[in-house]
Amino acid sequence: MSGKFITFEGPEGCGKSTQTKLLAENLVAQGIKVACTREPGGTATGEAIRNILQHDAAGEPLAGRAELLLFTASRAQLMDQEILPALEHGDWVLCDRFIDSTMAYQGFARGMDIEILDRINDFSINSRKPDLTLLLDLDVESGFQRLERRYSNGEETFDRFEREARDFHFRVRDGYHKLAKREPNRFRIIEADQAIDEVACSVWNTVKEVLL
Ligand SMILES: Nc1ncnc2c1ncn2[C@@H]1O[C@H](COP(=O)(O)OP(=O)(O)O)[C@@H](O)[C@H]1O
Ligand SMILES: [Mg+2]
What's the gap in Å between 13 CA and the centre of ligand 1? Predict the structure, then answer.
């Protein structure tokens, strides 16, 4: 039997990485085998692509279409090498960002054609969509306050997307809401402006209700 495929989406600092880890712990406690991964990245090829995307590692500004195709190339590699084999094996897969990030960032925020993005996304995942997408909803300012706290020790710096203007991030958040309305069966919106354990509790209740 195929495993279940869950993705976490939402604006910067909403808690995707934190909640991916906590949901994995809850699932493992139920005896479920879980693979956790992230986008862009999750494979050696994908992590090399991630470095180009997040930090302009190639030393020149990325063309918008190149950015899109790098994200989707990373995803295709992750899909074939990690996600599809794990699901076929019966494991559950949790992914921190996936196809909806492409729609929110490249589509709604950068303004690329939504229909074209839908087709490229579908191609990159061999048409295997997530069974459940958890949209961690948080207002843009609160997300950035969390990131500023995280970066205040000076060890990490804001990446290429985090440096975009606030307007860009408002369009991202609004785009996510449009995506959730478009596919209400796949999406659940989680109120992320709560303590970490409260968000984890909402996530867990939602996963139990929808998939267990
Ligand atoms: N519910 C929460 N309340 C307060 N801080 C949080 C919460 N969830 C995550 N954080 C902190 O905010 C920062 C961003 O969280 P993270 O999980 O990395 O978000 P994302 O992966 O969505 O960017 C981290 O420093 C994290 O510890
Ligand atoms: Mg993260």
Answer: 5
Q: Per-residue pLDDT tens for 79-104?
A: 999 999 999 999 999 999 999 999 99
Q: Residue whose CA is closest, atom 1 of ligand 1?
A: 196
Domain boundaries, position 99:
5-211
Residue nearest to atom 2 of ligand 1 (CA): 196
Reduced to 3 states (helix: H, G, I; strand: E, B; else coil), residue 84 is helix
- Please count the other Cβ atoms lying within 10 Å of the Cβ belonging to residue 198: 12
Cβ < 6 A, ligand 1 pocket: 10, 12-18, 146, 150, 194-196, 199
- Total number of domains in the chain: 1
CATH code, 9 = 3.40.50.300
pTM of the model: 0.96
pLDDT in tens, 43-75: 999 999 999 998 777 788 899 999 999 999 999
Select from 7, 14, 146 the residue to mutate for testing ligand 1; criterion: most ligand atoms less than 8 Å from CB: 146
Residues 6+ apart with CB under 8 A from 186: 129, 130, 131, 132, 133
